[in-house]
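Reviewer 2 asked us to include a model.

Predict the structure of this chain.
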Amino acid sequence: MFFRHSYDKLIYPIIALGLLSIVSFRPKYHLRGDMPSEFFPPTSNSTTAAKRSLEQKIAWAYWESAQMNIQWKYPHGQTLPTDPPSEFRVETKALGPSATDPATRQLYWRRLQQVWYAPGTWEKQYEWDMSWASDPLSSGADWLRNETGRLFSH
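Predicted model (structure tokens):
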């Protein structure tokens, strides 16, 4: 049974704020700022320093494209499509026409697919996220699915 007390008006809002904080402060995954070594693997010494420098700039440009465009469209844990989406691109002006060549774009897309699931590619940060409020039923189901997967995957 409920008994009314004079401090109930204070306790219930505190409990509600605590629950709201627990539900809204959640982990988010972001691609790391530093490019993984597997995304731009070392090549043989026969490559000239100038060519190697240009290739590294192209790799950085594609990594930045993944950070700015791809990770928001395909978040952590989601499968990347076979073909690169239109958002995965770089500017020709700064890097030259070889950077936007379809073969080069496909090469870096394949490399991104290789590093996408590696734990070292992502960093986990806790932040406020009120997106659950727009569709609480779907968000609750996602949370339940993630938690049961985490508990029973061992």
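The first helix runs from residue 8 to 24. The CA atoms of residues 22 and 128 lie 10 Å apart. We have added this to the supplementary material.
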